[in-house]
Design a protein that fits this description.
heterodimer; A: PH-domain like; four-stranded mixed β-sheet; B: alpha+beta; 11 helices
Chain lengths: ~325, ~350
């Protein structure tokens, strides 16, 4: 059965109704005063796009438009011509259902694994200048809004800083660390690390801890976060937009803007927390201190919270205290 | 043997409507496959996706019994996109290195913009055809610079008060120098109607702004109380958020449809081809209803409604188009032409110069 088509000669817009037919070798065209035939390799058939007319372009620059899609499909089948697999894909219901599932899968997998991996890679590649910039901005913002100068004595500050400077490193990788002291007011007993190596200790935490050894335990935990760049990774991961902007177009302003909130109220994943704990245990032991010191601090803070006192941010950031205490006991 | 070509379609009627035969359901298939492949190839496939998408739209659009076609090569589009991406990275890099370098890059981009626009126009038209005849563009590069750097700058300097002149002259250049084969398009709109629409749009915008501020003030207190926010600062924040949302909705559902409908009608109704005038009868209310229902659909389906939303608006816009008057559409002659690079078109996309034909 031949198929009706409209023929154009490619030189003018005049149209002509013709009939098409085909076999395995050739396609031929028939009309009053007009007969043509082409081998299939001289015919370019547009792929099926829903109900759109098919366009056939011939080797001599002429073309045909076929409106009756179903009839033309039959003609193609008779001639043994197959649709390209892609065209068959988006017309097939089952394939489309699978595609939707596939798209959801890719997006989910990307979010769960691709994102953290990319964040980790970027965190490693981050130039020090950028870490410093983000840290500066964070501290400046906090100093302007929430923090006040520390009321702890300068001598005590220097003593603690000296002990940190004398630390030996568990995996021979020194971690740049500088202590910063502040009165945190409402933030209570808290400590957090900034990407460029500064560890901010708040007066509230210094009061709750008894002795420099316990304070070192807290610092050791924060050093664990620094060693594995948890802060930067979390910052990059939490903001998909920030991550994309940093990776694809090199724009880090979304990260800088998000930094203060993300770094202060850092709710790290459980994996990050346990990794920091393990590092702290190793660091304490290699410097002649007991990992239980950290457990003691956690328990003290928990007790204060149970008594209705302001438990403080540091405890709140770290869930499942009992489990962590137990693990530290095993170390 | 020279055949005598007899017209197969009666094109002597007074009004030839445009028609769109696509459907959301069909387009969904193409859309979702495009999405998956683009994700999996980290964006490389987007060039092929674009070609397929435009082919779907073009081939389902018809006038006088014949469809349009789009036949750009995906590789050219990919090349253009990669170069545009590189430009964007350079721009961001300069922004962070030094203010002087940033300024230099900005100036370079401004000088480059007319060239990109010119190329985009030529590329898009060259790879579009109807009845086997290619479209084309005869506008000059010099005129592109005159319009963008001349009228564009004037518009900026007068804080957009003279922006209508920029738009009018841009359309005059884009539409007035286009052609189908050897048949020229014409554009005969005056400047005044552009100003009229501009002032009305501005008025609507101010209305939306006032409404959103008023809403923010009125709603702020009870909302803050409801959310147990303490102090004047909490109430202020709640008010700002509420007001901003109302502003966005107002722009999207009131100002944008009005602007699109009026400018669309003005620009297309003053475009002519082969002795026929194009007719465009968009209704702002109808567009607003479409935008509103589309927004609802997209939000409720987490984005899956998008292909239907796109088709709905496209179908409406094309249904409102027609070719008026009499005049031969059967004797438009083709013209020989060469290849056109894709950089202009893709670079424009990335830098968001949305000045589409």
């Amino acid at each position: 059965m031949s198929v009706e088509a409209t023929y154009y000669d490619g030189r003018s817009s005049a149209a002509r109704t013709v009939r098409l037919d085909a076999d395995a070798q050739m396609l031929w065209l028939d009309a009053e005063g007009l007969q043509r035939r082409w081998p299939w390799d001289r015919v370019s058939v547009s792929e099926r796009l829903g109900g759109a007319p098919r366009l056939l372009r011939f080797g001599d620059g002429t073309l045909c438009e076929v409106r009756d899609g179903a009839a033309f499909d039959r003609l193609l089948r008779r001639a043994g011509r197959r649709e390209p697999w892609l065209a068959r894909w988006y017309a097939n219901r089952r394939a489309l259902a699978l595609t939707v599932a596939g798209a959801v899968l890719v997006l989910t997998a990307g979010y769960r694994w691709g994102l953290p991996w990319l964040a980790a890679w970027l965190a490693r590649e981050t130039p020090p200048a950028l870490s410093a910039h983000i840290s500066d901005y964070t501290l400046r913002t906090l100093d302007r809004t929430l923090l006040k100068p520390s009321r702890w004595s300068q001598d005590d500050q220097r003593a603690l800083q000296a002990r940190v400077a004398a630390l030996r490193w568990p995996d021979h990788v020194p971690v740049r660390c500088r202590l910063v002291f502040r009165d945190g007011g409402k933030l209570g007993a808290n400590a957090f690390a900034l990407p460029d190596g500064r560890v901010v200790l708040l007066d509230g935490l210094l009061q709750v801890t008894a002795g420099d050894d316990q304070r070192l335990a807290v610092i050791a935990h924060e050093l664990g976060h620094l060693r594995y760049r948890h802060g930067l990774r979390k910052l990059l991961q939490d903001s998909v937009i920030g991550l994309f902007a940093a990776w694809a177009i090199g724009d880090v302003s979304p990260l800088t803007a998000a930094a203060p909130a993300a770094l202060v109220d850092a709710r790290y994943s459980r994996a990050f927390e346990l990794q920091a704990d393990d590092y702290a245990a190793a660091l304490l032991r290699i410097n002649g201190l007991s990992p239980l010191l950290l457990a003691q601090v956690l328990q003290q803070l928990q007790r204060r919270k149970a008594e209705g006192g302001a438990g403080g941010g540091w405890l709140a950031q770290h869930p499942a205290t009992a489990e962590r205490v137990r693990r530290l006991g095993d170390r | 043997m020279e055949q005598i070509l007899v017209p197969a379609r009666d094109t002597s009627a007074d009004t030839l409507p445009f028609s769109f035969g696509g459907s959301g359901r069909e387009y969904f298939g193409i859309w979702i496959v495009n999405l998956l492949l683009t994700l999996v190839t980290l964006g490389i496939y987007s060039a092929w996706a674009k070609v397929r998408r435009l082919q779907y739209f073009y081939r389902h659009t018809a006038v006088a019994g014949s469809s349009f076609d789009y036949h750009a090569k995906p590789w050219s589009i990919l090349k253009g996109r990669l170069i545009a991406f590189a430009l964007l990275v350079a721009y961001q890099g300069a922004a962070r290195t030094s203010p002087r370098l940033y300024l230099l890059v900005l100036i370079l981009l401004a000088l480059l913009a007319p060239l990109l626009l010119y190329n985009a126009q030529r590329f898009r038209l060259h790879y579009s055809s109807w009845r086997g005849i290619r479209f084309g563009f005869d506008g000059s590069l010099g005129r592109a610079y005159a319009v963008v750097l001349g009228w564009g700058l004037l518009s900026l300097v007068t804080l957009t008060l003279l922006a209508p002149l920029f738009r009018a002259n841009l359309k005059r250049w884009q539409h007035g120098r286009a052609r189908l084969g050897s048949a020229r398009f014409e554009f005969d709109a005056e400047d005044l109607p552009f100003f009229a629409i501009y002032w009305k749009t501005l008025g609507l915008g101010l209305l939306v702004l006032t409404a959103s501020i008023g809403w923010a003030l009125v709603v702020a207190s009870p909302l803050a109380h409801l959310m147990n926010l303490s102090g004047p600062r909490g109430a202020f924040n709640a008010g700002v958020v509420a007001g901003y949302l109302i502003f966005l909705l107002g722009m999207w559902l009131l100002v944008l449809p009005f602007s699109n409908a009026r400018y669309g009608n003005l620009i297309w109704s003053h475009t002519l081809l082969a002795g026929r005038r194009l007719g465009c009868r968009l209704s702002a209310q109808r567009l607003a209803a479409l935008y509103a229902t589309n927004l609802l659909g997209i939000v409720l389906t987490l984005g899956l409604f998008t292909p239907w939303a796109v088709i709905r608006v496209l179908r409406y816009r094309i249904d409102c188009l027609s070719l008026e008057g009499t005049g031969g559409l059967d004797d438009i002659q083709a013209l020989a032409g060469g290849e056109v690079g894709a950089l202009g078109m893709e670079a424009l996309g990335v830098f968001d110069f949305d000045l589409g034909f």
